Amino acid sequence: MKRSFQINNKMKTLLRIDSSPRKQTSISRQLADVLQEKLEKSEQFSTLKRDVYYDELVTLGNEDSVTAYFTPEDQQTSTQREAVASSNILASEFSKADTYIFSVPMYNFGVTAGLKAYIDLISRAGISFKYTENGPVGLLENKKAYVIITTGGTKLGTGVDHVTGYMKTFLNFLGITDIEFINSDQIMADAEQVIAKATEIINNI
Ligand SMILES: Cc1cc2nc3c(=O)[nH]c(=O)nc-3n(C[C@H](O)[C@H](O)[C@H](O)COP(=O)(O)O)c2cc1C
């Protein structure tokens, strides 16, 4: 088996983020399994997984957490500190990773609520982006993201696809520009064929 190692011996981190509420029957998770295996075979990774529907760290924000985002740590109340703790963990974990796999089902033309909640937790000034005189600048450089998108009937790349553009905008916002989309759309038409085509794309990465 061919493996490549970084010269400085620092093992790269692969962070996989699953965002389907379905587990056993999820096609995006199934394709993410194939991609994870493929990447782990080609390079030595330390792999972390976040499951936005089944991970208790992924929560909706509230007044305390949002206030804490803009309050220096030593001035936060204990309630604010507690409310922002999961965001601190997830944002710094995300910022430290090198390569990402997002498995992203389309729900009502956008990403699932769980993924949106996760994105709101990891997009943090001072951790994943910073404010400058010229506006916000992403802090995550030299990263690679793979985004697997599944849809039932909607064709990706059309005007009603609010997943592809959103994922690109959000990743670019954090500084991640090397993005590979793996489309698995219109599954309802012919699931087997659509999954086979996406698997082939992954195997050719
Ligand atoms: C609540 C809900 C909303 C959905 N909305 C859309 C949609 O807007 N467009 C679409 O093409 N498919 C839609 N689908 C179908 C899913 O995108 C499709 O089943 C996909 O395979 C889900 O990913 P998963 O298999 O990883 O769970 C929806 C499914 C559910 C359950």
From TrEMBL:
One protein family per Pfam: Flavodoxin_2
Cofactor, how bound (note): Binds 1 FMN per subunit.
EC class of the enzyme, as a word: oxidoreductase
Cofactor: FMN
Keywords, alphabetical: Flavoprotein, FMN, NAD, Oxidoreductase
Highest taxon of source: Bacteria
Residue sites binding FMN per the record: S20, S26, I27, S28, M106, Y107, N108, F109, T150, T151, G152, G153
Catalysed reactions, semicolon-separated: N,N-dimethyl-1,4-phenylenediamine + anthranilate + 2 NAD(+) = 2-(4-dimethylaminophenyl)diazenylbenzoate + 2 NADH + 2 H(+); 2 a quinone + NADH + H(+) = 2 a 1,4-benzosemiquinone + NAD(+)
InterPro entries documented for this protein: Flavodoxin_fold, Flavoprotein-like_sf, FMN-dep_NADH:Q_OxRdtase_AzoR1, NADH:quinone_OxRdtase_FMN_depd
E.C. code: 1.6.5.-, 1.7.1.17
Flavodoxin-like fold domain ranges (all copies): 13-200
Function: Also exhibits azoreductase activity. Catalyzes the reductive cleavage of the azo bond in aromatic azo compounds to the corresponding amines. Quinone reductase that provides resistance to thiol-specific stress caused by electrophilic quinones.
Family indicated by similarity: Belongs to the azoreductase type 1 family.
Subunit structure: Homodimer.
Protein name: FMN dependent NADH:quinone oxidoreductase
Species this chain originates from: Aquimarina litoralis
Upper classification of the organism: Bacteria, Pseudomonadati, Bacteroidota, Flavobacteriia, Flavobacteriales
